[in-house]
Amino acid sequence: MYAPAWARGLREVGVKASTWDWTKSLGSGLVGRCERRYLVGPGIARAKNELLRRAAESSAEVVLLYALAAIDAPTVQALARQHWVAGYHNDDPFGAHGGKPGLRAWKRALPHFHSHHVFRRKNVAEYRDCGAERVKELRHFYLPWLHRPATLTQSEKGRYENEIVFVGHAEADARMGYLAALLAAGLPVRVHGGSKLWRRHLPFSLRRAFAPLRPVYGQDYVKTIAGAKICLAFFSRANRDDYTTRVFEIPAVGGFLMCERTPIMQELYREDVEAVMFSSEDELVQKCRWYLQHKRERQQVAAAGRRRCLAGGHDAVSRMRQWLHDTRSWMTAAGHPGATA
């Protein structure tokens, strides 16, 4: 959902943008699943050729590759002869998942892009160490056309109203201990996410408490956040994250954000005024218990957090203004013919 949001955000700031989904080139059935996992096969070759063809036919001045797994250095080099090639990846190529085929391919191709924006600050120096000349941080964003307050109907309240909610992927990191601590304290927690990863990582002792597990998207996600008294945000250790997209989406919807404490989060929000933070299981349990019992204070934090999030320009359109400004500046400095388009 976030890759198409780039195109919509760019259109809203006056850029003509078209999109292409590389996965449409993959085979079906077992062949397609193997191509997606191992990034080899006829579908991967089709994807690279289709990318080159579409770029040439569009006469695009900039080709943005958003977390494109089916990529290699020769394809980027071929694109770069005719277009400014920009990159963005929300996963960490230098984190625990860096050995996966798609991220290995991204790292090998990385020096051949004209420019990159990165999800996390620590990646800026790492990209430069790999030979990338132009790199800037561009934090993720909420979607202003989707992530906004929602009023639940009477019939929806039974489905969406919860005490504590976590929406996200499963990972064998601190989140499992945090969730277990909340349950042990007798606090009700609802979890939403892809069932495959949760089955893999969720300890057996917690499975019954969180069943059934299902993902929520679009308006279903918005109503899940709107209906929760406390919305949790955990940060991926595998990706070395110190924030996540949720920390913008939850306040934008008007939800109460309870997140792990990091320096970046303390920059983004005033602690205990615009968001509530924790660094241990005991602190999380104590704060959840207190805020569940204090509705007025909870609502004040949620309202202040939403004001701060909106004023901070953390929406997709504002981020695309930043991306466009950076890219045009780089193109101008490099003397690229599309710099003033």
Please, could you describe this protein's structure?
It is a single chain. Helix content is about 50%, strand content about 10%. The mean pLDDT is about 95. Strands 6-5-7-8-9 form a 5-stranded parallel sheet, with helices on both faces. A 4-stranded parallel sheet has the order 1-2-3-4, with helices on both faces. The protein is built from 16 helices and 9 strands. It has helices at about 1-10, 30-40, 40-60, 75-80, 100-110, 120-130, 155-160, 175-185, 195-200, 205-210, 220-225, 245-255, 265-270, 280-290, 295-310, 315-335, and strands at about 60-65, 85-90, 115-120, 135, 160-165, 190, 230-235, 255-260, 275-280. Strand 8, helix 13 and strand 9 form a beta-alpha-beta unit. It folds into 2 domains: about 1-140 and about 315-335, Rossmann fold (3-Layer(aba) Sandwich), CATH 3.40.50; about 155-310, Rossmann fold, CATH 3.40.50. The longest helix is centred in the C-terminal third of the chain and has 19 residues, at about 315-335. The protein is of the alpha/beta class and about 350 residues long.
The structural class is alpha/beta
Radius of gyration from the alpha-carbon trace, in angstroms: 21 Å
How many β-strands, per DSSP?
Answer: 9
Beta-strand percentage range: 5-15%
Mean pLDDT: 95
Largest sheet: 5 strands, parallel
Low-confidence stretches: none
Task: Please describe the structure with a list of short key phrases separated by commas or semicolons.
341 residues, alpha/beta, Rossmann fold, five-stranded parallel beta sheet, four-stranded parallel beta sheet, 16 helices, globular
